[in-house]
Structure formats: C-alpha cells, structure tokens
C-alpha cells in the first residue's frame, strides 16, 4: 500500500523542475568538479534564523516587491556564513536584466550579483543538515588542498530540493570559489 502512495509523490516531484544558472564543467574528478559560471543576478538577505531568511526571500518572489510581480522559484538556494551572519541567496531567472529586477519592499532584501568565476563543487544527497554539509565541505576542502587548488572565500551550502523530497532523491552541494588557471 505504501508503495502506491509514494509513486505519485515521486512523479510529481520529477515534474517540478526549477531553472538553475548555467555553468560549464572545466575539470572533474571522482569526488568533485570545477565549474565556470557567468555573472548571476541574485536576491539575498542576512539573518540569524534560517527560516527567517528563507521567508523574506520567498515573500519577495511571491510578489512582495515594488512591482507586486511574482517571480518563479529557481535553484539552488545558497547559504553562506560570513562574519557570524548567515547570507541566503536566491538566483533570479536569467530573463531579468539588472535594470528590470523588481525592487524589494523589504529593506533587508538586497539585489546583487555574483561575479563570473570558478567554483569547486561536491554533490551529495540526504538532508541539507549542517552536519551533512560540514562533512562534505571538509571532503571537498581536503581534495582541493591535495590538488593545490586555492580556495577563495567561505563555503557555500546549495540546496536544490524542497522539504517534501525524499532524502535519497535530494541534491545538495558544498561549494568553494577557487582560483583556476588550467587543468591539473
């Protein structure tokens, strides 16, 4: 009986694909890959409570902005710890040019961009818990150090799936921006 109840959830989950920023894989190992991303427009907020940050950004894309415009959800949702403050980011759809982005109604939500660059990424499934993230962040950091790839900045936790996705089907990533000149 449970098997029949889960099947529709899996089918619906696979139909609900969100757009994500395009990238080019420039190097790959069995553990991680190096990606090049072009500039990406984002909205972001700083917070101390994870739910508070998500809700502010979700309200923005739900129409709580100066144009009352609904904006489709994209993935991933990024979280970074910078100077004892969490920063959560949602990517804006590629269709927006910087001067077309609706201004936030909430002063704690900011429009920004992420400059083009190279990012080392390790992918993992399961819950997007801090424990799971820190484990994979350390694996990635160790591999990058072994390969003499310089890390730039703080680790980024990227989550792609909602809370109702079964843990084995979730896509999470630990990411570091890196200096990248050529293949190893």
Q: Could you explain the architecture of this structure?
A:
This protein has 184 residues and is an alpha+beta fold. It has a domain at 17-38 and 116-184: Phosphorylase Kinase, domain 1 (2-Layer Sandwich), CATH 3.30.200. It has three helices and nine strands; from the N terminus they run αβββαββββαββ. It has helices at 2-15, 50-61, 130-146, and strands at residues 23-28, 33-37, 40-47, 77-82, 85-91, 110-114, 117-124, 151-159, 172-178. Strands 1-2-7-9-8-4-5-3-6 form a nine-stranded antiparallel sheet. Strand 4 (77-82) and strand 5 form a beta hairpin. The radius of gyration is 17 Å and the shape is globular. The relative contact order is 0.20. Mean pLDDT is 89; it is low at 1-15.
Layout: helices, strands, pairs:
Blueprint: H1 2-15, E1 23-28, E2 33-37, E3 40-47, H2 50-61, E4 77-82, E5 85-91, E6 110-114, E7 117-124, H3 130-146, E8 151-159, E9 172-178
CATH fold topology of the domain at 17-38 and 116-184: Phosphorylase Kinase, domain 1
Shape: globular
What is the CATH level 1 assignment of the domain at 17-38 and 116-184? Alpha Beta
Structural class: alpha+beta
Q: Output the radius of gyration.
A: 17 Å
Major sheet size, sense and barrel closure: 9 strands, antiparallel
Beta content: 25-35%
Largest sheet strand order = 1-2-7-9-8-4-5-3-6
Low-confidence stretches: 1-15
SSE order, as H and E? HEEEHEEEEHEE
Query: What is the tally of beta strands?
Result: 9
**CATH architectural category of the domain at 17-38 and 116-184:** 2-Layer Sandwich
Mean pLDDT, rounded to whole units?
89
Tally of individual helices: 3
- Helical fraction equals 10-25%
Distance between the termini: 52 Å
């Amino acid at each position: 009986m449970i098997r029949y109840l889960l099947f529709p959830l899996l089918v619906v989950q696979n139909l609900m694909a969100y757009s994500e920023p395009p990238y080019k894989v420039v190097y790959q190992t069995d553990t991680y890959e190096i990606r090049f991303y072009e500039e990406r427009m984002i909205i972001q907020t700083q917070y101390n409570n994870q739910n508070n940050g998500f809700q502010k950004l979700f309200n923005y894309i739900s129409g709580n902005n100066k144009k009352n415009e609904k904006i489709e959800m994209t993935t991933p949702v990024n979280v970074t710890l910078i100077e004892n403050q969490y920063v959560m980011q949602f990517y804006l759809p590629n269709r927006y040019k910087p001067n077309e982005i609706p201004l936030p109604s909430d002063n704690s939500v900011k429009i920004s961009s992420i400059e083009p660059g190279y990012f080392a990424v390790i992918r993992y499934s399961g819950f997007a818990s801090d424990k799971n993230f820190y484990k994979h962040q350390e694996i990635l950091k160790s591999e990058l150090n072994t390969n003499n790839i310089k890390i730039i900045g703080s680790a980024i936790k990227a989550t792609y799936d909602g809370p109702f996705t079964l843990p084995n089907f979730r896509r999470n990533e630990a990411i570091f921006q890196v200096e990248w000149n050529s293949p190893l």
